Each structure stands twice: as C-alpha cells, then as structure tokens.
Amino acid sequence: MDLQPSEIVVYERDLLFLAKILGATGIKGLGVRLVKELPRLREVKYPKKVVLNLELETKELFDVVHELKEKYPAAKFIGYCAHTDTKTLQEAKEIGIDAMPRSVFVNKLNQLF
C-alpha cells in the first residue's frame, strides 16, 4: 500500500527524538509522515522534505535516496547522525543529502521546517 502524499517524511525509530521533530513541525502545522521501516520509505509520494536518520541501514538507505531523488527531484533531503561518524556524513553529502551531526540538526529544527 502506498503512503499518502505528505509535506515531510521522517525516517526515524527513536520515539523521543521523533517527538522533537514533531514538535518543531507541528507548531507550523506541517503534514508529517513517520516511516519506521526502510521498504516503506520507497512508497512515499510527493514529499517536499525527507528527514533521515543516517544511522539506520546506511548503504540501503542511500540506495532508496537515489530512487526517491529520481522520482522527486524537487524534494529536499536532510540527514543526521553522530558527529563522530564523519564517513557517513561525507557520503550523504556526496549524494545530495543536507547532512549534519545530530546536535546541529536539533539546534536547527525550527529553521529547517
């Protein structure tokens, strides 16, 4: 089953961290779709922004990002992970994800949405 169109799609499994994201987007009345499983991420429709926890299945996640970028070239991809995971941050930037350490992402939540 396809997911319905949504302004923002969030790929995250940490409920406490997700609450922070939902808090920032909810204040502005933005439509958010939570995706906890990677195969479901392939089913999103017309996202404006896709927010990604880059620590979840990185290689496969990057494959899905490539697919989504081809289908929805106007979508913006934002990713975060540990500041010590410089390899993942660099790889994400190379494929067009606006990647940043988790702490920077948290500090910029209100600006990103």
Protein architecture, described:
44% of the residues lie in helices and 20% in strands. It is of the alpha/beta class. It has a single domain, classed as Rossmann fold, CATH 3.40.50. A five-stranded parallel sheet has the order 2-1-3-4-5, sandwiched between helices. The model has no long low-confidence stretch (mean pLDDT 88). It has helices spanning 15-27, 38-41, 58-71, 86-94, 102-107, 109-112, and strands at residues 8-11, 32-35, 49-53, 76-81, 98-101.
How would you concisely characterize the structure shown here?
The protein contains six helices and five strands; from the N terminus they run βαβαβαβαβαα.
Write the layout of secondary structure elements.
Blueprint: E1 8-11, H1 15-27, E2 32-35, H2 38-41, E3 49-53, H3 58-71, E4 76-81, H4 86-94, E5 98-101, H5 102-107, H6 109-112
Parallel strand pairs: 1-2, 1-3, 3-4, 4-5
Task: List the defining traits of the structure above.
113 residues, alpha/beta, 5-stranded parallel β-sheet, 6 helices, 5 strands, 20% strand, globular
